[in-house]
Design a protein that fits this description.
The chain is an alpha+beta fold and 171 residues long. The chain is built from 4 helices and 5 strands, in the order αβββββααα. The strands form 2 sheets. It has a 3-stranded mixed sheet. The chain has a two-stranded antiparallel ribbon with strand order 3-4. The longest helix has 17 residues.
Length: 171
Amino acid sequence: VPVVRHAEARDPYDTALEIARVSGAAKDGSAKREELSGSTITITSLGTLGGVVHTPIINHPEVAIVGPNKIAERIVVKDGQMVVRKMMNLSSSFDHRIVDGHDAAVFVQRIKGLLENPAMLWMVDAMHRLLGVLALTSAITGAPVLACVPAPGDQFEARARDLRAVTSVYE
């Protein structure tokens, strides 16, 4: 599995580029050993296969695995009305010898909040540590969070072109 190092310190743009780079290297067989080992957490997805829920198994010595599932329309009650909304389950497993259950639940709730309100990524600096995880989740599931990365002047077109290239890796 390709490894993105220091995801917590990367912005969504840089994370997406690194995902594309290491994924491409893994696919074409040019990945180095250190690009395929040494991770702490895995982001996996069965959503592209149509899965709506799964129980991810932690790859030792990692401490957790998080897996977004298929985004599907479901009927929900909102303000007393039955309405159709796009919904997604987020499956996760944590090694409770290392990660306290409460901390794991807080982590999952923060990811949920950021997926539901991606604008918060640009407003709250304290959320920066979760940015790498969200960007990985977004890139894997195809959610459009990465498409709104602001950049000044000519850099905007270069970033937009790079993001289109990254998106094609996941189609």
